Every structure is written in structure tokens, then in C-alpha cells.
Automatic annotation (TrEMBL), chains A, B:
Belongs to the acyl-CoA dehydrogenase family. This is 3-methylmercaptopropionyl-CoA dehydrogenase. It catalyses: 3-(methylsulfanyl)propanoyl-CoA + oxidized [electron-transfer flavoprotein] + H(+) = 3-(methylsulfanyl)acryloyl-CoA + reduced [electron-transfer flavoprotein]. Involved in the assimilation of dimethylsulphoniopropionate (DMSP), an important compound in the fixation of carbon in marine phytoplankton, by mediating the conversion of 3-(methylthio)propanoyl-CoA (MMPA-CoA) to 3-(methylthio)acryloyl-CoA (MTA-CoA).
Amino acid sequence: MSYQAPIKDMLFVLNELAGLEDIAALPGFEDAQPETVQAVIEESARFNQEVVAPLNVTGDREPSSWRDGAVTTTPGFAAAFRQFVEGGWQGVPHAVDLGGQGLPKVVATPCIEMLNAANLSFALCPLLTDGAIEALMTAGSDTQKALYVPRLISGEWTGTMNLTEPQAGSDLALVRTRAEPQGDGSYKVFGTKIFITYGEHDMAENIVHLVLARTPGAPEGVKGISLFIVPKFLVHEDGSLGARNDVQCVSIEHKLGIKASPTAVLQYGDHGGATGYLIGEENRGLEYMFIMMNSARFAVGVQGIGVADRAYQHAVAYAKERVQSRPVDGSAKQAVAIIHHPDVKRMLSTMRAYTEASRALAYVAASHADRAHASADAAERAQHNAIYEYLVPIHKGWSTEMSIEVASLGVQIHGGMGFIEETGAAQYYRDARILTIYEGTTAIQANDLVGRKTVRDGGAIAKGVLAAVAETERALAARAEAADAGPVFETMRKHLAAGRQGLADVVDFVVAHAKSDPNAVFAGSVPYLKLSGIVLGGWVMARAMLAADAKRAEDPVFHATKIATASFYASHILSQAPGIAASIVETVGGDAWLAQDVEAY
Amino acid sequence: MSYQAPIKDMLFVLNELAGLEDIAALPGFEDAQPETVQAVIEESARFNQEVVAPLNVTGDREPSSWRDGAVTTTPGFAAAFRQFVEGGWQGVPHAVDLGGQGLPKVVATPCIEMLNAANLSFALCPLLTDGAIEALMTAGSDTQKALYVPRLISGEWTGTMNLTEPQAGSDLALVRTRAEPQGDGSYKVFGTKIFITYGEHDMAENIVHLVLARTPGAPEGVKGISLFIVPKFLVHEDGSLGARNDVQCVSIEHKLGIKASPTAVLQYGDHGGATGYLIGEENRGLEYMFIMMNSARFAVGVQGIGVADRAYQHAVAYAKERVQSRPVDGSAKQAVAIIHHPDVKRMLSTMRAYTEASRALAYVAASHADRAHASADAAERAQHNAIYEYLVPIHKGWSTEMSIEVASLGVQIHGGMGFIEETGAAQYYRDARILTIYEGTTAIQANDLVGRKTVRDGGAIAKGVLAAVAETERALAARAEAADAGPVFETMRKHLAAGRQGLADVVDFVVAHAKSDPNAVFAGSVPYLKLSGIVLGGWVMARAMLAADAKRAEDPVFHATKIATASFYASHILSQAPGIAASIVETVGGDAWLAQDVEAY
């Protein structure tokens, strides 16, 4: 199944919802003029459609394999990665003086989406490298930056993120890997790390592992973790490669999906200790790793959008081809393509509405990151940063949860053929399943949303976002009054208002009860996250509806379709918000199910 | 992961909700006394836990394989099937005079659930045989019954169901397989059938294929299809096996899940024609096949319950073992088993609530089938039959849709380990995915629910069931008034009333608009089905809550747990009903999304 990048929708969201023009006016982003951005996106589309997308099925059928410590990636991956490097695609959002293109995150995001839609497994390697670059740029020394970052930005080397150990998954307090200072500024690292994405592979000449470990005498828990650079090959001062470091890939996992992406078990220090270099200060490792993790979390949310869109395109193509049954309205005497059947339309519209809403929310979030980075005013920067940080767990959690549902609908549309592996729909269903788990499960995102992003500021940022939603409601109400409006604006306004009210109630509930009844609040944390995604997704779709309405004359089919999709979103997805809100605020004071002893399970 | 049959819950549902005592009082069901039923269920549990369940993982890792027309099933399957036959398990619900045990469907249903929880792939073989038995008992000649049925009931031979062809899946009007009369009462059958479950295997000495085909000059469409017996080996009058028939298994499918179950492509008549025997009258094949299909549809719904329960048990075991993070309420200073975390409890409770509600609804439906079969009064039989027929598509569609969600939650609870195939959680996620597709997709069930089961009688049966729901609300209200009641009864009553009202509105909408706006009604058909499942699942959980409350003293932990689960169901699942209802009734009069041209997709 070929992939067609949704360039029109991407540009619509960038221009109409994410304020690309304003961002291009910020210092440092002068290159992000509309024509340049369109050219970058079109070129990225071409590369991903032609080079990366065809390898998606190959990766599923011929996964990466391990032998004697070495990993051989899927045939074609290494060559495609060379083209990726040559095209400069790793550098899109990174510093110009270190070899990047210096484009804003809001422009890098569609490129990342296309890469992931083309091939989730392939895209994971650059995704982790991006995180390593951000961590080093923030916390690395000048020497470290100069030595590692340009080669990561070029893509010559790739990065990894080593957090998890067999006993330490979501709970990093349990990390045991240790790092012993050698007196020369370096450390010897010993321990086992698991689930290391692209922890070993044959696509680049070196791999820069960022590794969480404890130094001797470090405090217990997360306050005693430091972050180290442990390169696969040691690096001379001039950047040339030295000896092989004492880190070995002892196996890779046999997984449900993303089979081409090697998930490594890495053994550090079995032969005297792996040489590592401290990043920043001791015991601040988790803080630094969070930079990497936040970058990766945002990107994993984008993975959800990418795989959802790919599954949608696959299902549409099948639904237009497969002829089965006469139409229920008697409009034809013969069997018709199944896309004419209302339930198939409903499923396709659900897939598309989720995908477009989460895309719009992601790009809007990215635009806040860019404003947080480049706005002139410090208070403005702080405000945009807070909004971005509020949106990250919502985007990551919601976009990935919806991607599983969307991929599952994609299988369903194929009927029996969907269950046959050769059809290809099942791969998205398998691949998507990791997205709600890695880089922090949905529950971890929801804990972040509740604790750091809602309770800490008493719900101030959340309420600020909800005020913006209310503004959109007023715009809908104004538009609904016009004689030519039809029912769509009022339908959207009604559901958006009900959803916003429900979400506001939940924010109040979370703030009020987090201390007094933490079990009740955290039992509702994932529903709170999903509710936020549904309501804020509704908000951006409402804005899209208004913008498409204003531009209707320009490209009638595209804009009418956008309005139809937004209208579907309102009636079929946003309409679920009040029920979810009710279920959250009802959980209080030792609910029977929450209070009961775990032995009863 | 071992399987523990939920015997206590099964007996609770049979006795408290499905009226086992009343059914045992009906003529022909005298053997279904409580002690006998308990003994049957316990023995079935033992067999499935010890013999069938351990083969589940084996089947996934060593699927059935094809070579030169022959299928070799997973190692251990044939031997286990011999034990299944020896135990007489195929015969549980079938006629005593033909070798069965003559137990009511309400007793056979838990046995089928356990077989499926133990091993979906294995259970499919008997599932199809059951359908063949029912079709032959209803439409076969006396000679055919005498020749085939006893050997199917014993399990010596197995049955299959041959509907699908490459161009004819959901739409059987497109069937092309043809049958030519030979003048001696037999036919020669020619054609290709696909997706034939256990269409070829090595577990029984003969396979009785029931095949849809067209005779010469038959009308077009579904009114020109006849049903034929085409045995793999021809059968002499004394029941001994004759020559190999001209039906060949040319390949089996490479599937996402249920890999041990061979899904065959069968080629009929490549060497002169496969000998077939007409069942009943010509051109009434679809009607007869529907007997088989209804039996299989009910059983597939039960498959959903089985795999959901297995996934739940797997997740609970992991959640009790896996230690990660401190409790959010500060009740411990150390990391605890993750089952103590509120979000893990929420996920487990969701899994359990769905499973128990769909189990209760299934057994209640089965009890109506038994009353339809054996009640003394003809009007009563007709009434119970209509209720059963109304519940079948709801049960099939809802139990299977929920099983995918439950299996997905099971993966999520395992975190990263859930994505590793060796853990086993992923198998349920893959296996369950077929259940909403085969024996009629959820959309096909929903069409049945709308057309034959709601519109045809003007919503009379649906309204009758809703009147019973209202009765339960009154009982909840009465119980809620007592001083010792606590909030659970009123919470349940409130959500049940809102759900019932929403469902009633939808039934009115469906009846009112099916003719005038079929596209709108059928666009809401799957949501209508899911809404029905959620509300009727809530109804049986409400009844369970009241029954458990009345019996609280007898087994306090079990009954308190049941009340807690019902309470969770009310707040977290039933609470979604009004939003779904709203989304259905809002789709009217050429909604933008529904009206738009398919080229816009």
C-alpha cells in the first residue's frame, strides 16, 4: 500500500491554526516563509513516499536480526538511511551553526509525521537521535556538544536513550546501573539496560548511548541518578573513532509489531567497564533525561498520527475497490463499493476525524514550543512554554490511544481480509500497540498531566486554554446566526460548550481532591487525559471549521470536506465528553471498586 | 499462563440471573438440576484448564501447517481433541437419542466459554460442528440425520460452514459455486470457498462440509442458493467411510491470530465434481445456513467473553507480581505491586466489568433460547424466541467488540512486557481481533438488529426488554431507600435510567426513520448495537448487584466484589450511554459527512 502525504491538510493546519506566519516573524525563524515551508514539506513527502514507505512491509516480514552481538537491519534500511542523512532530514529543527536547518518545530513536525506514516520502525532511529541532540544541547559541556552534536545532526551517528532495566520500567527510582569515576574525568559503567530502541544496528558508524546510572554514594531513588554518554566506539578529540567500548547487545526482542526496529538488551561493563562521560552534574540525570524524554514523547504522539493516517489511507483504498452488497437506500440495484455503505463511511470518518484532530492539536502544540523558544518577551515565552508543557502529555497520550482504535477500525473495514497478514492492515494494528506504552505509558502521561501540569499551578494553564475554547464557541455562535450557516456551526458549538464545561469540572475536581483523595483523582487521570484530548481536539476542529468556511471559495472540495469532518467529530466524538467527565468526578471517597482489596481481583 | 475457570461467577449468573431452576423444570431439561450442572461445569473446567489451556501458546508458536493438500494441526491438538470426544463434550446440548447429553443451552454456554477461554483456536472446531448439527437437525432428511448427526455429536466427525468466496463475503448474493444434479439424487459441486475454518485437519476421520451453491437455473441473488452436504470422505449407508471426495484444501491463510485454527481455501470439483447432497429444498439454502450461522454467532459472542476473561486473568497475575512505584496516597514508602495503583485498578476493573456483564447477558440470552425451546405455551415460546433473536446480534457484536478493548487493556497493564510476544498478552490482542469479523461483522450484526429485530416489529420486542429494565430500576430505587444501602444502588439506578431512556430514544429513531432516511439509521446501527450492549449489560449487572446484596452474608467477599464491579460498570461504562444515544439520533437528513461524495475520502 503506497502512502500519500496529506500535504494539503498539513499546510492548512500550519497556516490557519498554528500561525506559521507569526512564527516565521520570530527571530531565528526567518527562513520559515510559506514558500520555503511548502517546499520542505513537499520534498519530505517525496522522499518518504518513494524511499521510506515501500520498506514498511519489508520490515515487518524481514525484521532486524541479531547474531553474535551484531544487529542486521531489514534489507534496504541502511541504504534508505544513507539517503535520509544525505537529504539532511535529521537536521531540520536543529541549530544552523551545528549543521542543522534551524526550522521551527512546527515545520519539523509534519516531516516527522510523514516519516512515521511511511515507516514507524525506520522513523524510530532519527526520533531517538533528536532526543539525544536536545539533551546534549541543554546539558552537555561545550566540548561534548562540539564532539557529538554535529555528527548526530548530520545523521552520521545515531543516539539512544537508556533508562529501562528489568526491575525499573515506569519507576526509575529502581535503576541499578552504576558508574564509577576513574579520576581522569571518565567513568566505568556497569549494568543491564533493556528495551533500548536501535541500541545496536548497522545503519550508522557510531551509536551515542545516553545512559542513566548511579555514582558511588549517590542518594537512593530518582535523586541519585546521573546521565552519561557511552559511545559504542570511543571518540578521539578530532572526532575520529577509537576502540570499541565495553557495551554489548546480548539480544533483541521478539515483538508484536515495529519488528524492523531492533529493541536491544545492552550489557554494560562485562569486560572491565564501559567508558562513560558525565553529562552536566551528578544526580541531575533524570532532569536531563526528561529533556530527551519530552522531545521523544512529543514525537511518539506524532507517530500515532502517522500510523493512523496510513491505516486510514489503506482502508479508504480498499473501501473504494471492494464491491459488496446493494446500498441500503436503494439507490442502486447492484452491489456497490463498500465505501457507499453508511457504516463504512462512519468508520472511515471516525478514522479521519481522529487523525485530523490530533494532527491539528500536535501542530498547535509545536507552535507554542516555537513561541516559547523565540518570542521576544520573557513572560510570553514562559506562558507559551507552560501551554506547550500542558499539551505534551495530552497529545502523547491521546494521539497514541486513538491510533490503536483507528488501526483497529482499519482492520475492521477490510473484513476477513483484514485478518490476513498479506493485506497489510494488521501491521498497523500491531505496530500502533506500542505507542501508548513506550516513552511513558498513558498512565504516566496522565500522572504528569495531573501532578505537574494541573495541580501544581492550581489549574491556571488548563483554565487559560479553556478560556480560548470559549472564545471559539463565541465565534461559532456568531457564524451560526448567519442565514447561510446551516446547522453545523451550532452543532459544533453545542458539543464544544458541553465538552469544555465537563473538562472545566474535571480540572476543578482534580485540583480540589488531589491531596485529599489522591486515589480517586489518579483513578480518573487517564480518563482526564482522554477527555482533554477529545475536547481540545474538538476545539482545533472547530477552529478548522471556521477557517475552512472562510476559505470555502478557494478550494471548495477540500474545505467542504474539512467542515464535514469537523461536523462528524462534533456529533460522534466530542459528544462523548460529558459522559467521560461524569465518570471522573463521580469517583470519590472510597468507591467500592477502588477501595476493595486487591485479593478480590 | 494458566487458566482458572470462573466457576463461582458462572454459577451465580446461572442461578441468580438466568433462572436455571425454572429451566430445569421445563420438559426435557429435568437433568439440569443444580448439583448436576455444577458437576458438569466443574468437570468441564478441569478438562479445559488441564488439557486445552496449555495448548494455547503452543498453537500460536506452532500454527497448523499445510503441505500437499493436508493440514497438520499444532502438536498436541489431535490428542486433546480425542480426549474432548471421549469426554462427550461435543454432545452437551444435543439430543439424547442421538448420543448427546440433552442439557439446556444455558448449561452448554459456560462449557463453551471455558473451552474458548482455554484456547480459541482449538474451540473453533467444535463450534462449527455444533452449527452443522443444528442445521442438519432442522433441515436435514431423516436419512441424513441418522447418517451424519450421531457421528458429529460424538465428535468422531467434524463440521464446517462454506459460505465465503473471494467475491462474496458479507454479500452472499454474489455466491457462484454451482451444484449440478446427477439424476441419482446427488449433485456435483464446483467452486472455490475461502476462509473455511477447520476446512481441512487431522483431528477427526471425516469432515462434513455444509456448502452454499447454486443449482442450474436458480434465481439470482440470495434466493437462488441451496445448501449441500459435501463430506470429505463419502459415507456408505452403514456409516463406514468410502472414497475421498473431490474437495481439496489448496492452501491455508497466514493470519494475525488464532494461528492454530486452519483457515482453508477449499477447491470443489477440480477432478470431475465433488459429490454433494441437497439439504431440504432447493433455493432455501440461506435460510438453513442461517440456523447454523445463528448458532455460530451466539458461540462467537461467547468466544469474546472467553478471551476477555483469559486476558483479564493474565493481567491480574502480572499486576500482583510486578513491583513498580510508590502508592499515590503515600500509604507505603516503597514501590508496591502495580495492582495497588489506581489506574491499574481502573483498567482491571474495566476488563472485569465488561467480561462479567457480557457473560451475564449471554447466559440470560441462552436461557431465553431454552424457554423458546421447551416452554409449554406456544405464545410463551414465541415470545422467548423473539427475545433471544433480538439479543443474539447484540451479544455477538458487543461481546466481541469489548473483547478487543479488554485484550488491549491487558497488553497495556503489562507495559513494555506486553509488547514482547513471549509474555503472552499480545496473543489475546491478536486472537480477539477476528471475533468482530467472522460469522458476520459487527456491521452485519447491526443491520440484523436494525432490520429484522427492531424495524420489523416496530420496536415491540426492544420496548419489552426496556420495560424489564425499568422494573429493575424500581427495585434499585426501593433498595436505595434503606438506611444501610450506601450510594451504590442509587448510582446504578441513575445511570441505568439514563441509559434506558437513551436506548428508548434510539429505538424510536430507528423505527421512525428506517424507511425515510435509511442512510442515517444505518450510519447509527453499530452505535445502536453498542449502546444496546452497554445498557443491557448494565441491566444484568444491576440485577447482579441486587442479587449479590441479598446473598451478601453467604460468601461476603464474592458478593461484595460483585457489587463493586457492578458499581464500577455503572459509573465508568453505563455512564457513556447518553453520549452514544445523542450521537445516533443527531444523524439525520443528509448530514454533511454522510452526504459527501466518496471521492472526498
